[in-house]
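Narrative progress, year one. The postdoctoral researcher (J.K.) led the effort to move from monomer predictions toward full complexes, under supervision of the PI. The following entry was the first complex the group processed end to end, covering 426 residues in total.
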Amino acid sequence: MNFQPTFAYAQSLDKADPLRPYRQRFFFPKHNGKNALYFTGNSLGLQPHGVEKALRKELKHWREYGVEGHFKGEMPWMHYHKFLQPQSARLVGALESEVVVANTLTTNLHLLMASFYRPTKQRYKIIMEAGAFPSDMYAMETQARWHGFDPAEAVVEVAPRPGEETLHTEDILATIAQHGEEVAVVMFSGVNYYTGQFFDLEKITDAAHAVGAYAGFDLAHAAGNLPLHLHDWGVDFACWCSYKYLNSGPGGPSGLFVHEKHSLPRELGGNDQPLIRFAGWWGHDEESRFLMKKGFKPMLGAAGWQLSNAQILSMAAHKVSLDMFDEVGMSALREKSLLLTAYLEYLIENLNGGRRFNIITPKNPAARGAQLSILTGPEGKKLFDYLTENGVIADWREPNVIRVAPVPMYNSFKDCWKLVDMLRKF
Ligand SMILES: *Cc1c(COP(=O)(O)O)cnc(C)c1O
């Protein structure tokens, strides 16, 4: 692309943007009466206009039907998870039966590890990226402990090479191969929250399978950010939250994926007896759930990992967002995202030849999503405070990184231009 640094050029990109109308469907926080420059959709997505109406609808449902709301109305609560399955499946490239929305992210990570991390004395290692999101670090550490292993030995981290910030795929694959038959699970994030690096999930999955291990992914920063093909890649399990790129509100519910090869009974082509799991009544076979009898019989597919009756209010908000993602489609979003992120990168690099602000996110567009992580100099915190005072909502990570995410669903090319204009004036 031959970008130009002028404001008029940013305007022309906005004019040509087919997704431009979606910006009007979100509430932006205000700064001095004007829309703030919001660059933290990777942390908490903005509120879609439709959410309030969807919540009011469920409140009315509850008000008018009480407990009978489980069986009455357009979307009876008893089956609520089913109304979110088709869009969730398209979002992550899965079969409908392979996904369910339930619980919260870290809870699901533990539930999935309870099924897929069944270590033995010979095969007990978990391979993950160094510098993962803390919840994932704590989850893997305590999973190892729970099974009586020392995390210092059982949890193997793949770290960047000296002087580098991101990982080489070949180093990830080599680490998996090197630990070989000692590896039980490879658990990576899809996109690292700090660097914005998008990992090669298919290659990692193949490498895990080659040593007889499972591959699972935390897609918190990948879902709604990049097109995913979990089924075709053969990923064993995955989970994600709905409140980052997916705009479903603080503490929104999590999505969970289990490949059908693990959840189908043998007679339907699966390769397993139902996997062992920590079960609850909402994962129990619907036909017999209300007989309230002993003996857990899981629902087929990912739905069998549900624990509790559906969190209707937060799932109603999530449905509004999923509908919007479905309408736009991940390939159109990605198309805009590639252009938007490349444009922001160009503008930043155009300042001082890029020397003052060093982007640590991979330069290769295939290895990143919407986020750019900018390594700042010693004046970093001052710069961040200056941006905040001027109406930019971005994210500061110690010791000196500013993360910005130009989100294709609602950020504009002008937003990027204005942000970099402020950097220039600092
Ligand atoms: C945001 C995020 C979380 C947060 O987990 P919650 O259980 O939703 O609080 C966990 N892991 C990763 C990788 C994240 O990016």
